[in-house]
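HUMAN:
Could you generate one sequence with tokenized structure?
ASSISTANT:
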Amino acid sequence: MKPCCARSIAERPPVWHPPRRCENINQVGATIKEVAERELLFFLLNCILYSYAFTISNNQGESPLFEQTFKNIDDILHKDAGCGSELDYIEQTSWILFLKYLDDLEKEKQIAAELSGKPYIPLLSPYYRWKTWAAPKTADGKIDHNQAATGDDLKDFVDRELFPYLKTFKTSAESSATIQYKIGEIFSELKNRVQSGYNLREVINRIDELRFRTNAEKHEMSHLYESKIKNMGNAGRNGGEYYTPRPLIKAIVRVVAPVIGQKIYDGAVGSAGFLAEAYEYLKTSKSLTTGDMETLQKSTFYGKEKKGLAYIIGIMNMILHGVEAPNIVHTNTLAENLADIQERDRFDIIIANPPFGGKERAEVQQNFPIKSGETAFLFLQHFIKILKAGGRAGVVIKNTFLSNTDNASVSLRKLLLESCTLHTVLDCPGGTFQGAGVKTVVLFFEKGAPTRKIWYYQLDPGRNLGKTNPLNDNDLAEFVELQKSRADSTKSWSLSMADVDRTMWDLSVKNPNSGGEVAHRSPQDIMEEIAALDAESAEVLRGIRGLL
């Protein structure tokens, strides 16, 4: 590669070294066995670059290096003609970070293989590894400007050589359940949007400064990356579909309480926040055996996603989170006919926040017994059908689902209550989803027996939620604790099905312990119901005209 004029960067972090030599042969054997198992089989366990995991620990604050690096990268991409929004920033940052991570991963695998006395064949050919094209180093650990390409040379290499090479992994991989296949999928979907090779060189140099070796560093990266995904959620271009508040996801996972050995599914997986949090929950739920880790890696997490960018971010999130070959498929979940779902297709746990307010084509609606243009209603039918008998679910949906009087809403409530035990409804306040403009509830249900009693909890954080004052873990602590016994309080109560009108199946949130306060529906909610009823009337009229 040709010389470049990129500015120098901080010295490369010291390379991790194997444990020091031990004189006692038993110690050596134990050390090698431990490292071989943990580093070779589970090397991804703690690499949580994109996770939505816990923040670094109590009030430690953010690392100036990480925070400033991400800010600098956004500033660089902001001035590039090919990147126009937060979605572009995170997309382009993602693929570069991913390749940096893969290079570190190769080093860890190679060390583990050497310790176990086994050969190791790297995933990437030497010519395409990070240390060759992105950050070649001099003997003192600094960027080698004579080897590191920049400008048009760098852009041409990335566009004409690197991406085409990585795309071939999809066809050359042994199966779809490999990291090679997922790499091929990622780079078949993505493209380099950075138009200036000089800007690209600056971004690469910044990312090369980052180090991911200690748990603290990885958690700090997670915290900052969560902020980027949150920003993406407010950036337009359907960005709101990507981000569900982390505290809400954690509460849903804790209530649903999956266990190792169960299959967990999100049919609207987005950036895989629900699956990533479920992985964190299960990883710390017990002392894991080798068999447990293999189960988590290969046969626990499943998802489907229609949107291209969300699918790619979800795949990378899970890989970098610790699941090497996540079972996430790029497809329209709703295009699957419910009648085709067999017992082998079903799942033990469903956790999801399906997109609401979208519209599906008439032919897609034909896959469902209850026809509706509201995508969330179609997803809920899908979830009920694909959940195993005895399976548990936590699903976010608009609160108007509980009370709307159109035929689709009434029929769907009836289906849910008669085929599942809807045991808990969490009523979320306005502002829970930033920029969404609607109120939501979370439905917790178990499939198999009809509903007899529903426990409601009306979440009230005591403040207006917003961008500068978002939902936090403490806001949901009481809900999680009370839900275990489903006790009554000023914020919680139970509704017996004997008191529910079997004509409309109205499940409106009406807190009898609120001191007589009336919860008025918003004008937007009322207008939405009017629009739904108008659409239903128009459909009936079209049917009548067809008979004339």
